[in-house]
Amino acid sequence: MAISRTCDGMKRRDFLKVGVLGGAGISLSGYLQLAQAGEISRRAKAESAIFINLNGGPSHMDTFDLKPESSDEYRGEFSPIRTNVPGVEFCEHLPKLAQCADKFAILRGVSHTLGAHRLGTEYVNTGNRPLPALEYPGYGAVMTKERPGPRDLPPFVAIPNSSQKPGFLGVKYAPLNTGSTPSPGQKYSVRGIALANGLTINEIEKRQNLLQDLDKTFRGFESDNQLLDGLDRFGQQARSIITSRRAREAFDVSKESPEFAKMFGKTAFGQSCLLASRLVESGVRFASISLGGWDTHRNNWDSLKDRQLPTLDEGLAALFTGLELKGLLESTAIFVTGEFGRTPKINTERGGRDHYPRCMFMLMAGGGVRGGQVIGQSNDTATLPESEAITPDDAAASFYYNLGIDHTKEYHSTTGRPITIVRDGKVMPKLFA
Fold it and tell me: What's the CA gap between 229 and 89, in Å, rounded?
């Protein structure tokens, strides 16, 4: 298992662990008013979601926001190539994504101020700037609460695990971590779902009856206990999932046709994308994928061209194309982001780029998102947004909107404190125009 660490010590298991139209946007109510007036098209909301976390912070200037006319101290080593969208260019090492650029939207000039991996990761995984006294729930936990799926399927699957936490919602909204990724062409199962070591359905039933007897004995101790409530939910749903043939088959990527599976390649990331597409096709509401290795303080260009970009290009392009081939792209919201960008000015001593939250990119697709467009813009050196910045809060509000979830809805903590799903974000209507 390949293990790397970001520069501040966070572990990353590469490929295994882990009001204004163009800018900040408008409120949800404002968006709905425009939609009702016919100024914005209403497309069907997504039924499921795939979130891809690029752990470590990918360089925007070497991927989706190149500045070929900038000076040598900024420009970098890569050249731009044309995409299938007129006027839009990507890095030369993203040729497959360039040919399906019409399927997703690029957010440029996304900006925040948190330059530490942990804080930046918490921000982009929740849409809320972290607070020391409150842990916000990630997208998957909110999706599980607001739009629960079939009982015999896990609602939130992390491949192989996720930076998203259930936060104040409690452990019953935590993800099922696969703990591994599939291997090409091989039968794949997840521990805890497969019936291992000769275990039978009858034995599961007997154990369930015993657990019910124990529940009756200890029922008086369970009142208002969030942990026990979560464990009880896990136990009940685990039984439904374990005894479900649909759940077991949902994880078995070997059942995909060889022709379809081939375009995802052999990397762990590509296979994770294949699994995610199969999961949402089966009815899983939310899947997250992690792709680490983007903390390129040193050897930025060799790391990107030899490892990171080919892996991302193959897997992500296959995900967009595969979902469209299966008729699932319009029902699956996709969100791709790192925790921040990297310094436009090159660190010549180490041949790399350092942390830079002031300017970064995000990708969105599926559901009501109109692909083939660029929203937002960075300045001529990609150091700052050209005008009004897009924030992670705005991206979160738009992601939730695409899933039919009102980001202004209030939850209550265990102490009764009212907490908005996304505190400061506004929907970006241009995404859906």
Answer: 50
Residues of the chain above pLDDT 90, percent: 73
Q: What is the CATH number of domain 4-182+251-432?
A: 3.40.720.10
Helix, strand, or coil here: 367? coil
What number of helices (H) and strands (E) belong to the chain?
13, 16
The kind and range of the H/E element at 226 are helix 226-242
DSSP E strands in 10-77: the ranges are 11-12, 48-54
Q: What is the pLDDT, as a whole number, of residue 310?
A: 98
What pTM does this model have? 0.85
Instruction: Give Cα 206 to chain centroid, integer Å.
Output: 38
Q: What's the sign of the alpha-carbon dihedral 364, 370, 375, 381?
A: positive
Q: Can you give the pLDDT at residue 25?
A: 45
Locus of tokens 């992500």 = 316
Rounded-to-5 percentages of helix, strand, coil across the chain: 35, 15, 50
**Domain ranges within the chain, ordered by starting residue:** 4-182+251-432, 191-249
